[in-house]
Design goal:
Layout: H1 2-21, H2 28-49, H3 56-80, H4 84-90, H5 93-99, H6 105-126
Helix pairs in contact: 1-2, 2-3, 2-6, 3-6
């Protein structure tokens, strides 16, 4: 099961890169928040893999904590620390993927959806064996 979670992480990274980089004709809303959903689901997988005997609820909580900390750190750091090189980096593709360009509460909603979908997939795949 741990291998499957790490494999799912790699697959989600690939899907996320295609989602963001390949012109799929998605709306701006689907592009932004779909990427956030995929990112949160991708974070869930290693959280669950690192706690193979832990509960799904515990993996959800750990992932939500990480997602919230990332949102807080990237948003607050961007407000507190501005420099020409960091602002220029945010305008590049790696900067946009790693730091994003802005934050809204809808980002947290998208994260919650991604975490929920990943947990539901795990629950279905585990056949109820992991509480």
């Amino acid at each position: 099961m741990t291998r499957a979670r790490f494999a799912a992480t790699i697959v989600l990274i690939g899907i996320g890169l295609v989602w963001r980089l390949v012109p799929l004709g998605l709306s701006g809303l689907a592009l932004k928040y779909g990427g956030s959903v995929l990112w949160a689901a991708m974070i869930y997988c290693p959280c669950a893999a690192l706690r193979p005997r832990g509960s799904i609820a515990g993996s959800i909580a750990a992932t939500a904590l990480i997602a919230s900390l990332v949102a807080l750190v990237t948003e607050e750091a961007s407000r507190l620390f501005h420099s020409p090189w960091l602002d220029a980096f945010r305008l590049t593709l790696p900067g946009a993927l790693l730091l994003e360009r802005g934050f809204s509460l809808w980002d947290l909603v998208a994260d919650a959806v991604g975490i929920g979908v990943a947990a539901l997939c795990e629950r279905i795949h585990a056949g109820g064996r992991r509480p």
